[in-house]
Amino acid sequence: MSNFESQPLKYIPKGFQTIVLNIGIKDETKDFVCIHSEVRCCASGVFTQSRFAGPSVNLSRENVKNGHAQAIVAISKNANVANGEQGKLNAQTILNEVSKALSLSNEDILIGSTGVIGRPYPMDKILSPIQELNNIPPLCDFPDAAKGIMTTDTFAKYASTQIGDAVVVGIAKGVGMIEPNMATLLTFFFTDADIDKKNLDLIFRNVMDKTFNCVSIDTDTSTSDTATILANGLAGPVDLTSFEAALLKISKHLVKQIARDGEGATKLIEVHVDQARDYRQAKKVAKMIVNSPLVKTAVHGADPNWGRIAMAIGKCEDEIDINPQKTIIRFGAVEVYPKKLSDIDLAQLEKSLMTEEVQINVSLQTGTSEATVWGCDLSAEYVRINGEYTT
């Protein structure tokens, strides 16, 4: 049985409290989340590399530099990006007000924002509820917090697991504008494990690179991608190898949920590339495949057109050690190249493409490294959702 629980979470880390509100950013759905610890935490964060990174990213990047934080604030339905000096001032004002309301240091608060770009925060709606945070009875409801950071997501994404006496929980949002160039969209992790900031940072970055930096919905890197982790130490020390394995598992769980929930998606695509020269080559080829609109549409239509996969691999023109004569392509376990069409089990091939999770496997035979990435198919619904996004 999986350690990952749907509703409710079975494992909850000690010492964290959640406040989830509707402050009227766009509609009546929840749009403000504050998660804070009873004590100061060791912290790590990775962020978008976009040149249009929003004020939330810049403030959080600066505040987490010292390896500590005590709270995370997230606002959904408004990214507060491309709003000039007013956008910076508004984000800083929110941090200042949360700091006062919860009696925390301003520098110990991180902030994430997600939603429409180019629209300023409706500060008249935001400030009054924030100033009353200390009057709201805090709970510990991570599934509710996951709902509060949703935009066009169709379901909340969260997972938790146990490592000895400690617990790690993660929440995430993201269904579109996803081609992370760091870690991801919005995802926040919380643990009561006692881990020093140096080891926490090393583990977190390694896990993010193997999971959230390996998911792609539409090749578009967001201006607001933020991934953070807070460790308050209240459960005592843990084995670092076991902790990294647990964090990797729940991160993979969240990544697959994000890929499944891609805007308009009907199928999850998992691309595994092995026998590569190194991890970088394996990941590059896998991303090229999962990002191809032609591959995505073929998967959507259950069309076993392996030529589109060959095309995507061929676009890695700098990988001169990739030899078409040695490359092997499979849909699931069914080899489609370089086999002759007459030797392919077409019935099994069709069956593998009709499932909700389609696996594409490529062996490059240039080395011994491997990588896995996740994405989704491309449907007409994706066009409709994004064609009507601001309306």
Report what the structure shows:
With 391 residues, the protein is an alpha+beta fold. Helices cover 32% and strands 28% of the residues. A hairpin with a 2-residue loop joins strand 10 and strand 11. The N terminus is likely disordered.
Q: In CATH, what is the class of the largest domain?
A: Alpha Beta
Main sheet makeup: 8 strands, mixed
How helix-rich are the residues, as a percent range? 25-40%
CATH topology of the largest domain: L-amino peptidase D-ALA esterase/amidase
The number of domains is 2
Count of DSSP H/I helices: 11
Classified in CATH, the superfamily of the largest domain is L-amino peptidase D-ALA esterase/amidase
Question: Whole-number radius of gyration?
Answer: 22 Å
Task: State the gist of this model.
Helix content is about 30%, strand content about 30%.
Structural topology:
Blueprint: E1 16-21, E2 32-47, H1 55-63, E3 68-78, H2 84-102, E4 109-116, H3 123-131, H4 142-148, E5 157-163, E6 166-173, E7 186-194, H5 197-210, E8 226-237, H6 240-260, E9 268-276, H7 279-290, H8 293-300, H9 306-314, E10 328-331, E11 334-337, H10 346-353, E12 357-363, E13 369-376, H11 380-387
Parallel strand pairs: 3-4, 7-8, 9-12
Antiparallel strand pairs: 1-2, 2-3, 2-8, 5-6, 6-7, 9-13, 10-11, 10-12
Which features does this protein show?
disordered N terminus, Ubiquitin-like (UB roll), globular, 2 domains, 5-stranded mixed β-sheet, alpha+beta, about 400 residues, 11 helices, L-amino peptidase D-ALA esterase/amidase, 8-stranded mixed β-sheet
